[in-house]
Design a protein that fits this description.
alpha/beta, 10-stranded mixed beta sheet
Length: 487
């Protein structure tokens, strides 16, 4: 906090997500909450984009630091940043928002906590370059988590991870209902199936240069939107820990699809059929050029065990080679929400023979096509339905109830700043950050999602198609948390 009582914030990264969500929100808070954007940090290659975006905005950073592209790897704090950071600290800082490419998360998060700042991290918590790496390199994700968590406890700073489904109105409703239901009947969540397809169709040449949501560093979908659903699985099954039969470990198998696989599925000949010979260069990539690149699709099969007894079976199915509205070979200016990206999302949660809860959310067009006035039914941008099926003769209530969240948010669409229910949930996490409230998305609650992510990459790097399974301890802080169960 500065001498005048204002809250100075550092924003690391002004990429598509930060421009869509964080900056407008910071701008709104600056006007009413005495907030200052003390420092903005970006790469030199983004200077024109940043200056164009900032032109005419009511919130202007007090300092902007542009870093050489060589610092994209996040290996160390660049000297250009350190000088500006000292000046920002002298004027007074309260917090930091890290919205960079994930490999830079750790070094900036460490700096923020070492300087007693509150911290909001984009997901995933951290990332490391896994291209050609040994399996043990993937376990650094857990080492990073342990180090940041210990520092957060020591400094007593609020550290949140932007996993917005924890603050999503629909998923909060589902979790609250399940909390009461499990408490009343002492039966665990016995099955969870999560499916997410975000329609991000990358053409072969784009794998070689893509930096926003990259694959060339040996990781992919799990570190992109996939982390949200690994986290959602952990967040929901955490409810079983309140029961006498609380699980103590997870047995997990991981499978995946890589860019070379996708190139075999949608060949250059198919690309020519759709896009014509002018797009031949986009498909002129040899599979060897993308060898070892990160996954485009990822599939986790898990069982949560109490002793030798299976309490919960779960599957998390994460696709980017899925239905897309992309019908052009050249990238548009907006590759975040304006390149044909369409989201399909489904969840099934079973509580033995007593209850099934289902979530269905299916879009048929991308965000840039949404004018804010369409309905909330299947295929609309706002579609999000929740179904409850109960063994009503035993547990009470009606055999079936349904909530159409897309219809219930209709009144919000007259607000031109409203971008949809997922975006609204992101803003809820940002609100928690400024309230210093870690109850929903605090770093400490991300131990299992980080372990599942690390174990998945450990599996992927360990064998071409992964070992038979790995086991993960659910004991908080367990040092020897990962075992190869069988091959």
């Amino acid at each position: 906090m500065s001498a005048d009582g204002s809250r100075g914030v550092v924003l690391f990264g002004l990429g598509p997500h930060a421009r869509r969500i964080y900056y407008p929100a910071l701008e709104a808070r600056a006007a009413r909450d005495n907030l200052r954007l003390a420092l903005l940090v970006e790469l030199e290659s983004q200077k024109d984009v940043v200056e164009s975006y900032l032109a005419g905005r009511s919130l202007q950073p007090e300092q902007v630091v542009y870093l050489p592209a060589s610092h994209r790897d996040g290996a160390s704090l660049p000297v250009e940043f350190l000088a500006a950071a000292q000046e920002a600290l002298r004027r007074g800082l309260w917090g930091a928002v890290v919205a960079t490419e994930p490999k830079s998360h750790f070094v900036y998060a460490l700096w923020a906590l070492q300087n007693d700042l509150h911290l909001l991290l984009d997901k995933p918590v951290t990332a490391v370059d896994l291209l050609g790496a040994e399996p043990a390199e993937a376990l650094r994700l857990v080492d990073d988590f342990v180090e940041l968590s210990a520092l957060a406890r020591r400094t007593n700073r609020t550290v949140l991870v932007q996993t917005q489904r924890r603050a999503h109105l629909g998923y909060e409703l589902v979790r609250e209902y399940l909390t009461e239901f499990l408490g009343a009947f002492d039966v665990p969540i016995s099955y969870v199936d999560l499916y997410h397809a975000d329609g991000m169709w990358n053409l072969p040449a784009e794998y070689l240069f893509r930096e926003n949501h990259p694959y060339k560093y040996g990781y992919g979908k799990l570190m992109h939107s996939g982390y949200h659903f690994i986290d959602l699985f952990a967040w929901l099954t955490e409810l079983n820990q309140q029961l006498p039969s609380a699980p103590d470990r997870v047995d997990m198998t991981f499978r995946y699809v890589r860019p070379a696989d996708q190139m075999a599925q949608v060949s250059a000949a198919v690309g020519r059929r759709f896009f014509g010979p002018s797009a031949d260069d986009v498909f002129a990539v040899d599979p060897s050029e993308v060898a070892g690149f990160g996954e485009v699709d990822a599939f986790l099969l898990m069982q949560l065990l109490h002793g030798d007894d299976v309490m919960t079976t779960g599957s998390v199915n994460l696709l980017q080679t899925s239905f897309s509205r992309r019908a052009w070979p050249r990238l548009p200016a907006d590759t975040y929400k304006g390149n044909g990206r369409v989201r399909h999302e489904r969840a099934t949660i079973q509580v033995g023979p007593l209850l099934t809860v289902q979530v269905h959310s299916y879009q048929s067009y991308e965000a840039t096509e949404w004018g804010g006035d369409q309905g909330g039914g299947t295929g609309s941008y706002e579609h999000f339905d929740i179904h409850f099926f109960r063994n009503s003769a035993l547990v009470g209530g009606r055999p079936f109830d349904s909530v159409a969240l897309g219809d219930s948010t209709r009144h919000r669409r007259v607000d031109r700043t409203y971008l949809g229910h997922n975006e609204a949930a992101r803003l809820e996490v940002l609100t928690d950050f400024f309230a210093e409230d870690s109850s929903r998305a605090g770093l400490a609650s991300h131990e299992l999602p980080v372990k599942l992510t690390a174990a998945s990459y450990y599996s992927m790097l360990g064998r071409q198609r992964g070992p038979g399974s790995v086991q993960i301890s659910l004991t908080p802080g367990e040092q020897d948390w990962l075992w190869t169960a069988h091959r």
